[in-house]
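Sample pair:
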Amino acid sequence: MSKELEISFKAFIPSNQTAIQMHGGGGMRFTLEVPDNELHKSLALVQMRNHVLQVTIKLLPHETYGAGKVKKKDDAWLQPTGKPQQG
């Protein structure tokens, strides 16, 4: 890849135990689930293997995934700090 490439797609962190893994020697690994309707946007990731990525995460507080579908939410689930509530 000779020039800078930027892609954008919606994804979510699944609720299983292994979705976010902290490594004892430092570092972290995480899994993103990409719904079918966003898959075509994410396929460029295949070309990006073995390259360093700059990762920026943008929370979409009005959307959530459940049963494979986008659901709309209000801001009531956010605390004043902007962090999701537990539970």
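Residues 20-77 form one domain.
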